Amino acid sequence: MCLPEWGRARIQAQRLSDLKRLRRVRDRIDGQYAQPLNVGALARDVNMSAGHLSQQFRAAYGESPYAYLTRRRIERATALLRRGDLGVTKVCFAVGCTSLSTFTTRFTDLVGMPPGAFRRQATNAACHADLWMQPMKPV
Description:
- It comes from Streptomyces siderophoricus.
- This is Helix-turn-helix transcriptional regulator.
- InterPro entries: AraC_XylS_family_regulators (IPR050204), Homeodomain-like_sf (IPR009057), HTH_AraC (IPR018060).
- Keywords: DNA-binding, Transcription, Transcription regulation.
- By secondary structure, the protein is mainly alpha-helical.
- The chain folds into two domains: 4-66; 68-133, Homeodomain-like (Arc Repressor Mutant, subunit A, Orthogonal Bundle), CATH 1.10.10.
- The chain has helices at 4-31, 39-45, 50-61, 65-83, 88-94, 100-111, 115-133.
- The longest helix is centred in the N-terminal third of the chain and has 28 residues, at 4-31.
- The protein is elongated and about 70 Å long.
């Protein structure tokens, strides 16, 4: 005879186990965003099917593992473009993207402007800030 509390406890334990595995996936994406990652490989590493991982990841974090990986890559790309010492193509490959056109499309979708325009705007803003931060000669 099985008590209802045992079933609830077992479900709760499974949820906690899934959340632990989802955090491992998220941490791996955060740390290895520049590496070639796919949902199947991420799922195998935590002993889940790709479909189950995608479903659980979306339920826990509000987006699919692929969307999370893409967002992390674009966030890193904005930081690299802001520095101004790398071109768009080098930044694209540095963050783990393999297609410049896909990178440009995703970047534009998430940031609101193409990466080249973002880089120009960011470096121009830095130049203007440098001008204003220099001490002025007394008149």
